[in-house]
Amino acid sequence: MTDSASGRPGGRDPDALIARAGLHGDPNRDQHFLVDDRVLDRVPGYLPADADTSHVLEIGAGTGALTDRLLAVADRVTAVERDPRLAAFLREEFAAAIEEGRLRLVEGDALEVDFPDDATASVSNLPYGVSSEVTFRLLPIGIPLVLMFQREFAERMAAEPNTPEYGRLSVTAGHYADVSVVETVPKEAFDPAPAVESALVRAVPRAPEYAVPDDEFFLRFVTAVFTQRRKTMRNAVRNTAHISGLAEPDAVVAAADEDLMGARAGELAPAQFAELASLAWDVGAPEAEP
Ligand SMILES: C[S@@+](CC[C@H](N)C(=O)[O-])C[C@H]1O[C@@H](n2cnc3c(N)ncnc32)[C@H](O)[C@@H]1O
After folding, report:
1. Which terminus of the chain is more solvent-facing, meaning fewer CB atoms within 10 Å of its CB: N or C?
2. Which residues form the Ribosomal RNA adenine methylase transferase N-terminal domain (predicted)?
C-alpha cells in the first residue's frame, strides 16, 4: 500500500497524519500517537494466524495511523474515537474507505458506545486512562485482542502465580483468554511520549480450564481476596465479605482445605480460586449484590 498523501511505501506516515490533522496529542485526553512505523506495521501481525479479520474493532483511533494498517488486513474496520476534532479529521482522511463501507467511524466514549455485535477481533492502542474498563468490555465478547497498555498493566495482566505482578488482573483476564505480552514499546515510539513504557498484549479467547458456578461471583470473589493479598486466605476471605458478598465467610473457611486457607492469594492458581469460589457459592451464602 502507498500513502496517497505522502507517496511513501507502506502505510500512511504517522507524522504526516499528525501534521495533516493539525493538532498535538493532548496527554490529558489520553492522546499519545504511535509514530514508529516499524511498530505500527507489526501490530496487526500479532493477531493469531487463524484470526478472522473480517471486522476489526479499534478503540481510540487518534489520527488513524493504526486504522490505516488495520484497513490493509481487514475486510471492515469500526473505529471508535471520542475527540470530535480527531473524528472530523478521520472522516476526511479516510473518506474513501468510509464511502466504500470498509470503515465505520463511531464518535463517542468507548465506555458508552455500543460495540458492533459482529466484530471478529480488536486491535487497539488504548487510551490508558480507561484501558482496564475497555479491556473488561472486550474480553467477555470472546474475540482475539491485540492491545497496547502501559507496560506495568500489561505485565500484571499476563502474570503467573508466585510473581510480584500476579493479582486480580491476571486471574480475571485469564478467566477469558490466554494473555501474553508480545512486545514492549519504548516511550519514544509515541508523540507525545507517555511517562512510562508501553507493551502490546495478545489475548486469545478460550474457556477456562476450570468450572465456576457463576462468572460474576467468581470475579467478585477474586477481586475481594486480592485486596488483602498480604494476609492468609483464611483472613482474606473473612475480612472481605463486604466485597465478595458472602453472608457466611466463616462457613467457607471451615469447609475449605487447610492448605489453601493458609496460603496467600498470590500463591493460588486460577483453578484453586475456582475451587474456593465454588465452595463459597455452596456454603458461604453469597448475596446477589453485596
Ligand atoms: C493512545 S491514543 C492512540 C491513537 C492512535 N490509535 C495511535 O495509535 O496513534 C488513544 C486515543 O483514544 C482517544 N480516546 C481517549 N479516551 C477515549 C474514550 N474514552 N473513548 C474513545 N476514545 C478515547 C484519544 O483521543 C486518542 O486518540
Report:
1. N
2. 39-207
Per-position b or e across 70-92, b if 16+ CB within 10 A of its CB: bbebbebbbbbbbbeebbebbee
- Residue 182 is assigned to a structural domain of this protein: yes
Provide the domain count of the chain: 2
Say whether both 39 and 182 belong to one domain: yes
Q: What is the ipTM of this complex?
A: 0.99
- The residue whose CB lies within 8 Å of the most ligand 1 atoms, and thus the one to mutate among 35, 46, 83, is 83
Of the candidates 3, 109, 121, the residue with the CA atom closest to the CA atom of residue 56? 121
Q: What is the pTM of this model?
A: 0.94
- At which of 205, 227, 243 does a domain end? 205
Instruction: Enumerate residues lining ligand 1, CB below 6 A.
Output: 29-34, 60-62, 65-66, 80-83, 86, 109-111, 125, 127, 130
Q: What is the pLDDT of residues 144-181, one digit of tens each?
A: 999 999 999 999 999 999 999 999 999 999 999 999 99
Nearest-10 Cα torsion for 31, 192, 76, 86: 50
For the CA of 110, the nearest atom of ligand 1: 20
Q: Whose CA is nearest to atom 4 of ligand 1?
A: 62
Domain with 159 in it: 14-205
